[in-house]
Amino acid sequence: MIKNYVFGVFAAASLCLSTSSAFAIGPAGMAAPSKLRPLNIVAQKPTLAPFAFVKFCVANASDCADAHGDASVSLTSGLMRQLRQVNAQVNRSIEPQYDNDGDDEWQADVAAGDCEDFALTKRRRLIELGWSPNALRMAIAYTPNNNGHAVLVVSTSKGDLVLDNRSNSIRNWRDTDLRWVMIQSSVNPLYWNQI
């Protein structure tokens, strides 16, 4: 009898534990994982910066200088409008052109370039408009097609927003289709962290 009771309690506990995780998220069950992800990217342990970024910094020291400024911007409707304008203008102004294999070169203010060139140009334009450099971070991710991709992440009071050359829409990092790999530090642009 006790054996059956213990087995019954164990079975009931197992059933509760196996179903509780689905109900813990809400009525949609596991269909809503992004609601649990934070609005801001959580940087993990330090990692090496992409080599092409290091070369970019050697040639463009002012873009990689240790800047002092807020790590997050208090987002207003006017600043959001500025973000949208810069994102759309840069997306229109640069002709998409991939680097040759093994010859990855990061540049800003170019007529033709690939994803990191778009992101660096957007960062430079926003800094010229008075945005804090510490709130503007380069990030590396993978697209759904498993292609390496670089974007600009803007840390704001409304979360980390992504400026991507694949779209004029600006989205929170957790609402993109990207698998995140690494991001620049908000303390020093030469340092990078895993995501």
Automatic annotation (TrEMBL):
Residues of the signal peptide: 1-24
Sequence intervals crossing the membrane: none
Keyword Signal in record: yes
InterPro entries noted in UniProt: Transglutaminase-like_Cys_pept (IPR010319)
Keyword field: Signal
Cross-referenced Gene3D superfamilies: 3.10.620.30
Superkingdom per UniProt: Bacteria
This protein's record includes keyword Signal: yes
PANTHER family: BLR5470 PROTEIN (PTHR39327:SF1), PTHR39327
Protein name according to UniProt: Transglutaminase-like cysteine proteinase
